[in-house]
Design a protein that fits this description.
The complex is a heterodimer of chains A (139) and B (438). Chain A has 139 residues and is mostly helical. Chain A contains 6 helices and 2 strands. In chain A, helix 1 crosses helix 3, helix 2 packs across helix 3 and helix 3 runs parallel beside helix 6. Classes of the chains: A mainly alpha (139), B alpha/beta (438).
Chain lengths: 139, 438
């Protein structure tokens, strides 16, 4: 599935909920399915800066695609990174670099896109794309 | 006369006056809590009418910044509508009027804090600016044998400037430790003071925990060894009225925006002798006496420390904000907020798994807490969706968070315009967050 297809799938899932509570509850549930980062990779250098909670992300190149794993000590943040990783993991670096992230707005989580927001969603997107840029040069 | 100073609401004045007859006894204070008409006071704050995420705003982040009453907002509009000019240098009428207003505000601040002279009040951009001004000034007065004492409860803004000062001068930084309740250990403080101690810096009230520190004791002991004392009053000035001469404090700093004033302006009080001793902080216009390329002589106090065009409107309405708070009365504010603190503490403690950090017997209306096993960021996010504004995180006090071994807390801080109904909304919000996040 392409990144756009996955994002559309996520939009469709979120459209089934009527209010913010259900959307947040679902986001928290998605966080529970997050591909878990290995403990060995939970290092300070893998922490994404700009988040009030801690977010660790690890990226590995498998064949010509990037596989992301992550974790966070806050469960809402975990849900957010899970949604991002679901749309970016197992994709070509170039597609990740080119991908837009407007779907965040469409699933009713627009407030998390504000740069003043302490969860660092913007920092997360930037970090995932930086991994893609780095791996792109190895291909 | 200038319209700017007629803006306190008559109603608030009347209420305050009616109450002032009843404040001489404890029972008077109790009676006053009932009489302090919060619903009327709330009408002074336009922002309290707005909705957040579809819910009525419940603003409980007052320790970060207080809300602004319409009297202060109107005064800002009035200044720019009628008096805007640069000060201290124009011969034209506008400039003189603006200068008069600015200097009248300085006198108002002087009287509020009971400073001996108006020129002991330096306008700053806020508490952090005041601290940096003093730290920078002391760089030329310290050497490597000297010692500086700070407390474990300090805000980063009262740690970092002193660390920088120590790096520059080679002086040693010592820390007064705290106990689990969030109180400073005065017996250890006694042992930290030596003949080498030159400066002691402590906040009057902890921003993260609300602890009121025994600054009278701290000042007296520091003076016994010849050290100067700077008190960070950012958190105290919204709740109490410090008397700098009675405290005998050498420096006292605060910000206007914590006490119903605008952001970007604050004040540094310094004893005349100390302010004369310290070198200027910034060079520029306003702070000079004579300038030539060979030598510049500096202006007298307070202008020596007020380089460049200041926040004129901010400085003027800082005075308006002080008028506003005095019209309600600090004794009434303190009594009412104390009642809110007691009510909220009791209600929050009924929630299983909720732990309050900072349980000093002497504290202001700040409650820092966590839900067991739940990150404070998650709690804050859910509360925000419910229209409740609290602060989450380390509150710029990482050493305190390290002490408790937590990433941060949720902090609810109450002002005199908050209500018990709002506390009820907070409590049910925390319960909902707990349910969603567990």
């Amino acid at each position: 599935m392409s990144i756009t297809d996955i994002q559309n799938e996520i939009i469709e899932e979120f459209s089934m909920f009527e209010d913010w509570e259900e959307r947040y509850q679902y986001m928290i549930d998605l966080g529970k399915d997050l591909p878990m980062i290995k403990e060995a990779y939970k290092t300070d250098s893998n922490i994404i800066k700009g988040c009030q909670s801690k977010v660790w992300v690890h990226a590995e190149l498998k064949d010509d695609k990037i596989e992301f794993t992550a974790d966070s000590d806050a469960i809402i943040t975990k849900g957010i990174i899970a949604i991002l990783i679901r749309s970016f993991s197992n994709q070509h670096p170039k597609d990740i670099i080119d991908a837009n992230t407007d779907f965040i707005d469409q699933i009713g989580l627009k407030e998390h896109l504000s740069p003043t927001r302490a969860n660092g969603l913007v920092s997360m997107i930037k970090q995932l794309k930086l991994y893609a840029i780095a791996y792109q040069t190895q291909l | 006369m200038f319209k700017l100073f007629t803006c306190s609401s008559n109603r608030v004045k009347a209420v305050a006056r009616a109450l002032s007859y009843k404040t001489n006894s404890i029972s008077g204070v109790l009676q006053l809590q009932v009489m302090l008409n919060v619903n009327n006071i709330r009408k002074d704050f336009p922002i309290l009418n707005r909705k957040v995420n579809g819910k009525p705003l419940v603003y409980l982040d007052n320790a970060a910044t207080s809300q602004t009453p319409k009297q202060v907002i109107d005064a800002i509009v009035d200044y720019y509508s009628n008096y805007n000019a640069n000060i201290h240098r124009g011969v034209h009428t506008l400039s003189q009027e603006a200068t008069d207003l600015y200097e009248a505000s300085r006198i108002k601040i002087q009287k509020h804090f009971n400073a001996k002279h108006a020129h002991e009040i330096i306008f700053t951009s806020g508490t952090t600016h005041g601290i940096n001004l003093v730290a920078n000034g002391f760089a030329s007065l310290l050497n490597k044998n000297d010692e500086i004492i700070v407390s474990a409860l300090e805000h980063h803004s009262n740690i970092v400037p002193w660390q920088m000062l120590c790096e520059r001068t080679g002086a040693t930084l010592k820390v007064i430790p705290m106990n689990l309740e969030g109180e400073l250990l005065m017996d250890v403080y006694d042992t930290l003071l030596t003949a080498h101690t030159k400066l002691v810096f402590v906040n009057h009230i902890s921003n993260a925990l609300g602890t009121i520190n025994p600054i009278e004791y701290i000042i007296e002991k520091a003076h016994n060894v010849g050290a100067a004392v700077l008190i960070d009053g950012a958190q105290s000035c919204p709740h109490i009225k410090p008397n700098v001469q009675e405290l005998d404090v050498d420096f006292y700093v605060t910000s206007a925006h914590k006490m119903c004033g605008p952001t970007g302006v604050g004040m540094l009080y310094g004893k005349e002798a100390w302010l004369n001793k310290l070198p200027p902080y910034q060079g520029g216009g306003e702070m000079i006496d004579q300038v030539s390329f060979k030598k510049t002589t500096y202006a007298a106090l307070p202008h020596k420390f007020e380089a460049g065009t200041p926040d004129i409107a901010g400085g003027i309405v800082f005075g308006t904000a002080i008028d506003y708070m005095n019209s309600i009365g600090f004794e009434h504010i303190a009594a009412y907020e104390n009642e809110l603190l007691g009510y909220a503490t009791k209600a929050l403690q009924t929630i299983e798994g909720l732990k309050i950090y900072g349980t000093a017997s002497n504290k202001t209306s700040v409650i820092s807490f966590n839900l067991e096993g739940i990150h404070p960021y998650d709690v804050g996010t859910i509360l925000d969706k419910l229209g409740i504004a609290v602060r989450t995180g380390h509150h710029c006090t990482q050493p305190i968070m390290d002490f408790y071994k937590i990433p941060g807390t949720v902090r609810a801080s109450f002002a005199f315009y908050n209500t018990k109904e709002e506390i009820d909304i907070l409590v049910s919000g925390v319960k909902k967050a707990k349910m969603m996040l567990s």
